[in-house]
Amino acid sequence: MSINAETEKRWYVIHTYSGYENKVKVNLERKVHSMGMESEIFKIVVPLENEIEKKNGKEKVVSHKVFPGYVLVEMIVSDRSWYVVRNTPGVTGFVGSGTKPIPLTEGEVKKILSACGEDAAAPTAAKANIDVEVGESVHINSGAFENFAATVSEIDYNKAKVKLIVDMFGRETTVEVGFDQIEKI
């Protein structure tokens, strides 16, 4: 079997056994390193999205696979790189027609990577760190509501925003501010 070597790196989708996405990523990373394939296989990504789940009145950030059974690989396709990926335990094959893998378009890659936080422009729970929980009291340190005390009502890790309840003129008002605009009391 011969695959025409491409000179540019592109993103490809590999199909895995369901539930083996992370194992495939780890195994493939080890293989790339041990076989010296860093110049042909660059990034291996299991697209994840963070969701806030409420359980017993507490909110918790949980990661879910965006595409269960699939892993993204940035690589230059050659006979050798194709063989390394294809023969990694847990991999069932490339997504594409027959024996030739079909790369994702740039638009598809940007959309997928930014949605799962791989793009620096999209803050995620892993990148946006905040040390408060729902129900805690905070002090707003900048913006239109500077110097107000508030209670956290909702945390949006994907947007790096917090919804707060502020007491204004004897009425509770909901405001939304960035993580950097509050500090824990």
UniProtKB/TrEMBL annotation:
What is this protein's function?
Answer: Participates in transcription elongation, termination and antitermination.
Residues forming coiled coils: none
The record's listing under SMART domains reads: NGN (SM00738)
The NusG-like N-terminal domain is annotated at 8-116
The family classification in the record reads:
Belongs to the NusG family.
Q: Which GO terms describe its cellular component?
A: cytosol
Q: Name the Gene3D superfamilies for this protein.
A: 2.30.30.30, NusG, N-terminal domain (3.30.70.940)
Q: Which UniProt keywords apply?
A: Transcription, Transcription antitermination, Transcription regulation, Transcription termination
- The gene from which this protein is expressed is nusG
The UniProt entry, under HAMAP family, shows:
NusG
Query: Which protein is depicted?
Result: Transcription termination/antitermination protein NusG
GO BP of this protein: DNA-templated transcription elongation; DNA-templated transcription termination; regulation of DNA-templated transcription elongation; transcription antitermination
According to its UniProt entry, this protein's organism is Pectinatus cerevisiiphilus
